[in-house]
């Protein structure tokens, strides 16, 4: 009888997520932040989190580039800015500056600070081997929080039993 | 969904995730029992520091801090917070401190 009650109670409850593996594939500010927020939020919920940086997403963990991530002002209809205007010199920088200011005023961390913080939460950071080879990069190009450069196969085995989010 | 739980001799209202619906039903004597329900053993001084801090923040601001805010204002590094509460520092400490779930994305 008691077991039945417990079973009924667990049956009512929606299933919880135990693990997420988040792929960050874009190198723009708006392409990087959402994945970082989701990874950090997962850890805050006690969910295991892995971050996998691929293609231009590698810029987020690239020591030389992570301080210079920009908002895409061309081909970004969400900005409601004419494409020809978005391509003007300085527009992307100005828009990025504006966004960074807003982000800071909300006391959100910058991308480098955020990555450090996420690593401190216990989330694991990885680079994609195919992209690292493609761009001619090596381990030394990345921030020390990056645990390893792994293949897609290794990513899948690591992601096993959890959810995968592609951004 | 609200349910009731018995802690010691008191009956308290909790939501579906186990957070206190009425923080005034909480008192410090419940802490060891609440921690035990989280699968935690005897609490260290550092655990207590976090729990009391969460409670104080709630009393002052009406809401508990997120992990980042908790770390910044308590001066306890994020790494240590996760060592103290591996299942989510703000979330678990809020449950033990008898306050609602902290809201905030970062």
Please provide the count of β strands of chain B. Answer: 2
Pattern of helices and strands of chain A? HEHEHHHEHEHE
Q: Please compute the radius of gyration of chain A using only Cα atoms.
A: 19 Å
Low-confidence stretches of chain A: none
The chain-level structural class of chain B is: alpha+beta
- Percent range of helical residues of chain A: 40-55%
- What integer is the average pLDDT of chain A? 92
Radius of gyration of chain B, taken over Cα atoms and rounded to an integer in Å = 13 Å
The outline of chain A comes out as: globular
Total count of strands of chain A: 5
Percent of residues in β-strands of chain A: 15-25%
The number of distinct helices of chain B, counting runs of at least 4 residues, comes to 5
- Helices and strands of chain B, in order, run as EEHHHHH
Oligomeric nature of the chains:
heterodimer
What does this structure look like?
The complex is a heterodimer of chains A (167) and B (106). Chain A has 167 residues and is an alpha/beta fold. In chain A, strand 1 (19-24), helix 2 (29-44) and strand 2 (48-53) form a beta-alpha-beta unit. Chain A is built from seven helices and five strands. Chain A has a five-stranded parallel β-sheet. Helix content of chain A is 42%, strand content 16%. Chain B is α+β, with helices and mostly antiparallel strands and 106 residues long. Helices cover 44% and strands 11% of the residues of chain B. In chain B, strand 1 and strand 2 (10-15) form a beta hairpin. In chain B, helix 2 (45-61) crosses helix 5 (89-96). The radius of gyration of chain B is 13 Å and the shape is globular. The model of chain B has no long low-confidence stretch (mean pLDDT 95).
């Amino acid at each position: 009888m008691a077991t039945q009650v417990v079973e009924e109670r667990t049956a009512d409850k929606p299933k919880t997520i135990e693990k997420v593996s988040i792929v960050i594939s874009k190198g723009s500010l708006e392409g990087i932040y959402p994945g970082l927020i989701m990874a950090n939020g997962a850890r805050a919920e006690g969910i295991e989190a892995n971050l996998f940086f691929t293609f231009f997403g590698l810029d987020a963990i690239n020591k030389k580039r992570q301080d210079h991530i920009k908002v895409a002002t061309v081909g970004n209809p969400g900005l409601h800015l004419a494409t020809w205007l978005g391509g003007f010199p300085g527009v992307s920088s100005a828009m990025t500056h504006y966004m960074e200011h807003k982000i800071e005023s909300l006391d959100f961390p910058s991308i480098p600070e955020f990555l450090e913080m996420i690593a401190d939460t216990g989330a694991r950071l990885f680079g994609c081997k195919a992209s690292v080879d493609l761009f001619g990069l090596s381990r030394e190009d990345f921030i020390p929080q990056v645990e390893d450069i792994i293949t897609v196969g290794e990513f899948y085995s690591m992601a096993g039993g959890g959810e995968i989010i592609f951004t | 969904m609200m349910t009731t739980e018995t802690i010691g001799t008191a009956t308290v209202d909790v939501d579906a995730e186990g957070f206190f619906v009425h923080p005034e039903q909480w008192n410090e004597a419940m802490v060891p029992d609440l921690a035990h329900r989280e699968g935690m053993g005897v609490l260290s001084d550092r655990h207590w520091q976090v729990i009391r801090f969460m409670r104080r923040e709630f009393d002052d601001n009406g809401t508990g801090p997120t992990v980042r805010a908790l770390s910044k204002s308590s001066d306890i590094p994020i790494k240590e917070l996760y060592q103290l509460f591996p299942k989510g520092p703000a979330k678990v400490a809020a449950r033990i401190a008898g306050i609602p779930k902290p809201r905030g994305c970062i």
